[in-house]
């Protein structure tokens, strides 16, 4: 372990390495040059090596010195993890086994606009759950009570639903919900239909009819991509929707891809991880990949 990154200790230890040895350097993000992708810093890093192997998918959406810059000075290839990430996710996007079902959840529409836009061009069914759904409810003219809702995205939600219809994409949103009086783990709760959310109540999970609707859509899928929980899955009373979807994906014969972040954590916590084809190790990186964006840490490689 070197006590620095491109300093005398790292350089001396790198020069003394024998075949089969591994040197670990200090946390490179302690250096501002890393995140600034400083070319001189990247060149110094490269000077200690013969070849660059990037296997950090979780940071591949960053153009930093160690994730992209160094490739300007060395032959650059990916490791087995990045290879798996791009072959499984890339394969699903380019040539999916159909029907192709995408399930998107999580708190906000604004975080997932790019993903919705890209996936709507490719999928047969698009399922929206989680806090995101309430912006779509509002677009349909429903009252959403105190649910999380992005008023400035209501028009966009309308456009996305119209686009899905024009493309013949089946668009599923919750038909019932678990609503609560306050945003807390032990709040009073009840189940209501989506056009019947009472004043002063907030939707914190999908309801039982929706769990069945979504599970049925997943059951016949050839490929499933899932990103974002169906409710506030951190709290037991509002985790049932996420559990039901995780179970349906695990039980289906589909190629199943779980975007990183909270959905990956939920699948692992519930013990379904070994039933999934692929659980991405990148949160932000997998979202950008699913948006169809080029990731700098992958674009810079000569061989992938
Ligand atoms: N109905 C809801 N109301 C408020 N927050 C929600 C709701 N559904 C899900 N969330 C929250 O969304 C967060 C996860 O969203 P996000 O970060 O987009 O997912 P991911 O990390 O899987 O991409 C969780 O903290 C969860 O509690
Ligand atoms: O944990 C990570 O990303 P993730 O939260 O998107 O999975 C990576 O380390 C990227 O971190 P960054 O957002 O600080 O560049």
From TrEMBL:
Pfam families tied to this protein: PGK
GO MF annotation: an example: kinase activity
Enzyme class: transferase
InterPro entries: Phosphoglycerate_kinase, Phosphoglycerate_kinase_N, Phosphoglycerate_kinase_sf
Metabolic or biological pathway: Carbohydrate degradation; glycolysis; pyruvate from D-glyceraldehyde 3-phosphate: step 2/5
UniProt keyword Kinase present: yes
Coiled coil segments of this chain: none
Protein's UniProt keywords contain Ribonucleoprotein: no
EC number(s) from the headed UniProt entry: 2.7.2.3
Superkingdom, natural source: Bacteria
Keywords: ATP-binding, Glycolysis, Kinase, Nucleotide-binding, Transferase
Catalytic activity: (2R)-3-phosphoglycerate + ATP = (2R)-3-phospho-glyceroyl phosphate + ADP
Family: Belongs to the phosphoglycerate kinase family.
Name of the featured protein: Phosphoglycerate kinase
Upper taxonomic lineage: Bacteria, Bacillati, Bacillota, Clostridia, Eubacteriales
